[in-house]
Backbone:
């Protein structure tokens, strides 16, 4: 029942992370974990599950019975993608229909799920003839990825459906990766070094952060390997003034502070609640930054906008299409028209912050998107409008060249999907 309510909240426009965070305290840890697993799973496979269920319905359910539709998808997910015994998945779904006050639907629920159990091969063959449905992607996003990455699509699509690994970033100012790996092994925790990101360790099995040696003092942080490149590409130098303009949840802010001494870091985010997470991340590791609630597109309205900086990290709001494996609800929340609005906001933030960068300074433009409109095309347009800006070539390992930046692709680089472009301001004589 909890998973049904969670998915319905996502369909109403709420992010799954927020929904799960609002779970009632009375829910046991076991039930909370199961609800999260089912909620993530249904969001990840929603379109495919919906297509499979539709084949066994004589007619679509009415809108007032959307809860039954979601209940069917939860049951279908359990049958196809979980270790829950089929009889338990079916009986639980039937009982749930009664708890919803719709006992009349119990036979319908039972019949649809039993057919799916019995004929799943036949039903799957019918729906999987469409690659977009097979990978549970909306048509617009499937088409956009095919156009942008025709040679890599065969690897990207399965990777977006995979369960993401738990990745650690080792603070190299306190230890080295090899030494920390030895600490993990000594505790019976299996991990491997990331092939191309020198700060990253990939855990074989995710585990609570409390079990990680040194986590409480910032020795390691949980951060995708692709996101760990931000600090290296920004390349802060001791004593510099640094602006992290869209800082939450603070993983990149902490990385910056751990890379050089005596940095004067200002972290800005529009959301007060999210900014508190930045503070928590920094406090855990014994670091501090000047924190401001504010709009990165309107620095003129804020105290932090009167300063000038040698480094600016701009991890802009984006479609998040590169992190679908971690946030599968994005496939239900994001719409094609959103991309135009996001690109406009990205351009506005870039234009607003560029005057805050000192000559000779570096602005690192970052997205977790796979779409050129937010990435290479955005940077190209900015360079055409700003004669005092030049792109600095970044290492493309991991990643591939994309316009004047570097694109990381899921399934190819053992990372989430990220785009990076380093823009430096020319020194005029």
Residues:
């Amino acid at each position: 029942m909890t998973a049904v309510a969670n998915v319905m909240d996502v369909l109403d426009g709420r992010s799954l992370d927020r929904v799960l965070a609002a779970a009632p305290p009375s829910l046991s840890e076991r039930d909370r974990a199961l609800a999260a697993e089912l909620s993530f799973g249904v969001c990840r496979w929603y379109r495919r599950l919906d297509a499979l269920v539709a084949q066994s319905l004589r007619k679509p359910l009415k809108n007032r019975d959307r809860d039954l539709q979601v209940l069917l998808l939860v049951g279908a997910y359990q049958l196809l993608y979980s270790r829950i015994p089929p009889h338990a998945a079916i009986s639980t779904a039937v009982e749930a229909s009664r708890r919803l006050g719709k006992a009349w639907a119990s036979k319908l629920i039972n019949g649809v799920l039993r057919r799916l159990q019995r004929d799943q091969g036949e039903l799957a063959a019918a729906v999987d003839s469409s690659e977009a449905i097979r990978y549970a992607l909306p048509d617009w996003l499937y088409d956009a990825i095919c156009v942008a990455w025709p040679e890599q699509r065969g690897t990207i699509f399965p990777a977006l459906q995979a369960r993401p690994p738990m990745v650690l970033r080792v603070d190299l100012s306190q230890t080295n990766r090899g030494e920390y790996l030895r600490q993990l092994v000594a505790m019976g925790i299996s991990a491997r070094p990331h092939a191309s990101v020198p700060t990253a360790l990939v855990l074989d099995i995710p585990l609570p952060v409390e079990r990680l040696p040194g986590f409480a003092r910032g020795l390691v942080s949980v951060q995708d390997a692709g996101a760990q490149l931000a600090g290296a590409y920004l390349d802060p130098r001791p004593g510099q003034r640094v602006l992290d303009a869209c800082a939450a949840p603070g993983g990149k802010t902490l990385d910056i502070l751990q890379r050089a001494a005596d940095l004067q870091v200002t972290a800005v985010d529009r959301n007060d609640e999210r900014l508190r997470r930045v503070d928590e991340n920094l406090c855990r590791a014994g670091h501090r930054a000047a924190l401001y609630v504010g709009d990165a597109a309107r620095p003129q309205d804020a105290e932090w906008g009167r300063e000038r900086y040698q480094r600016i990290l701009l991890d802009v709001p984006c479609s998040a299409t590169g992190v679908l494996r971690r946030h599968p609800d994005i496939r239900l929340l994001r719409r094609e028209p959103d991309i135009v609005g996001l690109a406009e906001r990205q351009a506005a933030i870039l234009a607003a912050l560029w005057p805050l960068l000192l000559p000779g300074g570096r602005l690192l433009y970052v997205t977790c998107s796979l779409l050129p409109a937010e990435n290479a095309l955005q940077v190209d347009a900015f360079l055409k409008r700003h004669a005092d800006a030049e792109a600095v070539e970044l290492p493309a390992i991991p990643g591939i060249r994309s316009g004047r930046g570097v694109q990381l692709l899921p399934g190819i680089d053992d990372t989430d999907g990220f785009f990076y472009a380093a823009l430096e301001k020319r020194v005029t004589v």
